[in-house]
Amino acid sequence: MKSFFPDLVSWYHLNKRNFPWRTSVFSDVETFAYHTWICEVMSQQTILSVVLPKYEKFLLQCPTVYSLAQCPEHTLRELWSGLGYYARARNLQKGAQYIVEKLNGFFPKTQEEWMLVPGCGPYTSSIIASICFCQPVPAIDGNVIRVTSRLLELTDVWSTAGQRKINDFLKINFQNFFYSYPFSINKPTSFDVAPGDVNQALMELGATVCKKNSPLCSECPIANHCLAFQHGTVHQCPPSKPRKQIKEEDIYAIFFEDKEKKLAHIIQRKIGFLKNTIGFPLFSSHFSQSFLDELFKFAQEHGATLEYINKNFSHSITNHKLKGKVVRIILNQETWNSSWSKLLPSHAEGQWVPISKLHELLSSSLDRKAFSLLC
Predict the structure, then answer these.
(1) Cβ contacts of residue 12 below 8 Å, gap of 6+?
(2) Which of 35, 167, 299, 374 is 20 to 30 A from 43 (CA-CA)?
(3) CB contact at 8 A, 288 and 344
(4) Confidence class of residue 236 from pLDDT cuts 50, 70 and 90?
(5) Under a CB-based contact definition with an 8 Å cutoff, are residues 16 and 207 in contact?
């Protein structure tokens, strides 16, 4: 079968949207790779209208992999504010530190090498390797899944077998097309279609033409290759992705404050969905009543003041919808080590910090929401 790549890429060059990472002229491949890496991580699970101003501000503050590796925690958190999923920023910095410390500041070139960089999964490693280093590997995101499912008229796309069919189809097409041409790892010199262009064109097609709803099949450059278009089954491919069941849960954030109201106790979490974040001790509603009874008893026995804040905050993480409440406990630090610290999770490390600096130290939006109820 004739490859659809040339028609697709020709369309892409004429119709692609102008983003800074596409229109910038880079003096060297290392800078190109760094900018591409930043934009790809930012764009995951975040709409582009939000990414654009953040991307430019981020690069002004962290123009190189070295500056990102050394970026202070509070600055990184501020640069990432509004993008969500802050773990991406932490992993991005870990990746930068890996590149600086292990690779002497040189970026990996192949997908396999990128997979060794902390925070880089199959998609990120493939898209950077293909765009920046012309590696002939497919990068599969939601748009690419939709386009490919329609090309193949494939309805079973969300199972392991369905994902394998999409991956195998694209992998074979990349291999058959690109290995039939003279090839250079740094720049394809004898043909107009580069691996990175194919990946970006597939994503662009899915975002602007082969849309989930109201696809513009009459404008599609590869409609003559599309089995779903030919058979009138476009709207059936792919079926909606099965939704994960949303779990609703009540949680309590405990705000420990000294009697002078100058210091608060926060913890470094070691496990759970907020792993590696700094914030308040959190307790689930699964054992909230017994825990609250224990807190009240402790407060009476140790001369502490316990106050329930008569407000709630809401927070969503993956498939969890949380309704949070805050309990303020005012106590003497002298009794902390012998008594109150026993109530904290054994897997967390805690410290007393000035309340005036608390907002910049909290690394999760959940904790900042809880703290806002106290202000």
Answers:
(1) 197, 200, 201, 204, 205
(2) 167
(3) no
(4) very high
(5) no
